Amino acid sequence: MNECVEAKRRLAEKLAPCTKALAAIGAEARMRIVFALLQTPEKGLRVRAVAESAHMSRPSATHHLAILKEAGLVSVLKEGTKNYYYLDANAALWGRLAALFSEISDTVKRADEEGYPYGHCIASEKE
Prior knowledge:
Layout: H1 3-15, H2 19-26, H3 28-38, H4 47-53, H5 58-70, E1 74-79, E2 82-87, H6 91-113, H7 120-125
Antiparallel strand pairs: 1-2
Helix pairs in contact: 1-6, 2-5, 4-5
């Protein structure tokens, strides 16, 4: 197996544990929530404030926050009856995402230098 095919195989392996997080932040509405949470005080935002910041209804914000929470990107701080949502400092997850994008960048640069898609990578995949 040549280096190009091996690099793509490694990317696929690294992508698998990140798919839930990537799918969660892949929706525009959830990305707006992430942006809103990045601009908040450490304590976080309540659902109404998230909805206002992300320009959506409160039920929609609740739905999207649940998806982000399930993906490990958002957590909630409960104080009595109040819930504050904040961007989770999940170092392992953010590290996997950073490593994935770094390797994608390196692989794309190398493929471009080798003339992809017309270089040897395509021919080797047919073997």
